[in-house]
Amino acid sequence: NCTSLTSFTIPDGVTSMEKGAFYGCSGLTSIIIPDGITSIGSGTFTRTNIKYEHIEDGLNYLISRTGQSAYLIDGRDANGSVSIPTLVNGASVSLIAGRAFQNCTSLTSITIPDGVTSIGEGAFFRCDSLTSITIPNSVTSIGTGAFGDCNNLTSITIPNSVKTIGGAAFANCTSLKSIAIPDGVTSIEGSAFRGCTSLTSITIPDSVTIIGDFAFISCTSLTSITIPDGV
Q: How many helices and strands in the chain, by DSSP H and E?
């Protein structure tokens, strides 16, 4: 709510922008972001007047100061089957910001390119028409609530590169019937699969050491599960 702020430069070395960082900065029109940002939280630019540096197919990007990295900030106008490009204006797309596609009810499928390392919290929250998604091997984290309430999502393949499945990441995905968690995941956070009422099978690898509170609560079709010794 710093309404007098008009421009902002983030210095090199900063890697994370927490949710709501610039929320309500209605005078903010310009921001300079460095390379190396690995996460941008939900609502970071809500109620600002940031001018996106590239807009294509309903996807809005900010590009880093050097032009090497592109950050997908807002995709709520996307429609149908969408493939996020590998490069935008010569910059590599490296992350999907928190809540980027929230409530995008016209999105049916999405392909994420190699090079994206992070899917932000609530990135696809309540995308009711989303039925399938392709996640590349470059992604290391799936944020809190990333696919929450995607009630038509029937299948998803999680790559071996993912280390953490965030809290409520797949909560209330009522059409999801099975999921294989790959070797390399060490943590399944709280409520990760809460309310997945169609889930009948899940494979948990030996790499998992933590299963959070209520991870499988209300999974009424799940009849058996094997928990590895390392948990």
A: 0, 20
